[in-house]
Amino acid sequence: MTRGNHYDSIVRLHGHLIDSLTLAKVFDEILDRGGDYESEEISIGRTKKDLSIAKIRVTAPDPEILSSILKRLHQLGASVEHEEEIVLEKAKMDGVFPDGFYATTNLPTEVFYQSEWRAVENIGMDCGVEWDHERLKASSIKMNDVKKDHDYVVGIQGIRVQPQNEAIHSNKFRFMNSDVSTEKPKGIYIKQIAEQLRTIKNSDDEAIFVCGPAVVHTGARDYLCQLIEGGYVHRIFAGNALAVHDIEAALYGTSLGVSLAEGLNTSGGHRNHLYAINTIRSLGGIKKAVEQGILKNGIMYSCIKHDCSFLLAGSIRDDGPLPEVITDAVQAQSMMREKVKKAKLVVMLSTMLHSIAVGNLLPASVQTVCVDISPSTVTKLMDRGSHQAMGLVMDVEAFLHELCEYL
Amino acid sequence: MINILMCRPAYYAVQYKINPWMDTHIQPDASLAHQQWDNLLDQFKNNDVQVHLIDPQPELPDMVFTANAGLVFNNTFIVSRFRYPQRQKEADFFLNWFKERDYEIRHLPEQYYFEGEGDALFFKDTLIAGYRYRSDIHAHRFISEIIECEVLSVELTHPSFYHLDTCFCPLDQDSALYYPGAFDAYGVKVLESVIPNLMAVSDEDAHNFCCNAVVLGKKIILNQCSHSLKVMLEDMGFQITQLAFNEFIKAGGSSKCMTLFLENPRDSRH
Question: Which of A112, A148, B103, B245: disulfide with B98, CB 3.0–4.6 Å?
Answer without folding.
Answer: B103
